[in-house]
Design goal:
By secondary structure, this protein is an alpha+beta fold. Helices cover 45% and strands 19% of the residues. Strands 1, 2, 3, 4 and 5 form a five-stranded mixed sheet that branches. The N and C termini lie far apart (40 Å). The model is unreliable at 1-44 (pLDDT under 50).
Length: 176
């Protein structure tokens, strides 16, 4: 199980850690440019799962256990996370790069949020908030984002893909 988890999160965790350190240009270089998708029919996607409040509560529980202030849920960040999870589900891929080559920071700005710093965690396949939180906390890069004192707000989303996998996105940020 740990091997499969490492394969699902290893490179992503490193990309996420780079993003926290302000390496947006490095992240773009590390992420392969995905092919432009054709429009996926709405019926191909299993749907948006109502998990944002539960995931924010889970993150805040972990932060509290580590002596950190909670992050507040932000609707604009929720929208950025939801759009990215939908994109990943439509393309059946887990990546920090959007269909158009955008990075998380660009998608956060496109959602209308003005950030001074940002970080993103993505995952796929975990069926519950508890499972994805555990996976992220067992990945050094993802853990660093969740436990970063630099973030004050969070948006979260999960989308069930037509392939049965759940695509998770958490966008962390602090406003300018």
């Amino acid at each position: 199980m740990k091997t499969a988890l490492h394969q699902r999160l290893g490179a992503v965790g490193m990309s996420a850690a780079i993003a926290v350190l302000g390496g947006g240009a490095i992240l773009r270089q590390c992420s392969p440019r995905p092919p432009a998708p054709g429009p996926a029919p709405a019926s191909a996607i299993g749907g948006i799962l109502p998990i944002s409040a539960e995931l924010v509560a889970s993150v805040n529980s972990v932060r509290a256990a580590n002596g950190l202030a909670p992050v507040a849920e932000n609707g604009l960040l929720d929208r950025a996370a939801e759009d990215h999870s939908l994109d990943q589900a439509q393309r059946n891929t887990m990546t920090h790069a959007g269909w158009d080559g955008s990075n998380p920071g660009q998608r956060i700005v496109a959602a209308g949020y003005s950030s001074s710093t940002w970080g993103e965690n993505v995952a796929f396949g975990q069926p519950t908030v508890a499972a994805v939180t555990d996976a992220w906390m067992n990945s050094p890069g993802h853990r660093a984002i969740i436990l970063s004192p630099n973030f004050t707000e969070l948006g979260a989303a999960a989308v069930a893909g037509a392939n049965g996998a759940v695509y998770w996105t958490m966008d962390f940020a602090a406003p300018k």
